[in-house]
What does this fold into?
Amino acid sequence: MKMKLKVSRAEMWTATIDDQPGGAARVLDPLAEAGANFEFAFARRAPETPGRGLLFVLPVKGKKVVLAAQVAGLARADGIHTVKVEGGDRPGTSAAIARALADSGISFRAFSAIAVGRKFGAYLALDSAEDAAKAVGALRKL
It folds into this structure.
């Protein structure tokens, strides 16, 4: 059965944050004031760097938001090539995505997916622009 998925490239932004209460808020607050409306935000500790964490967001759009992001310490994650997947929530969607990537010989850096109501959304982080383009092609065939 064919899945109706919208697959596109996305631009991830990242910052190193303090691993303490308010670490993420110090970066996100000025962006909210500038009008940022994120589709994706993810923060995690960085065990390899005690006392620090990592914050990932997208999209960062508009002159005011881009400037606020840069001032707050966010930068384009040039080494992370991101693919966005959207569609209706159906059993097996995450497995189908993972299988399509495996069958295409693509190893992903990260895979984050969520279903809310009847909608499914996922973001894939890939190592190269070539892998991202290959992933887009493979996932559009689902």
The first helix runs from residue 23 to 33. The two ends are 8 Å apart (CA to CA).
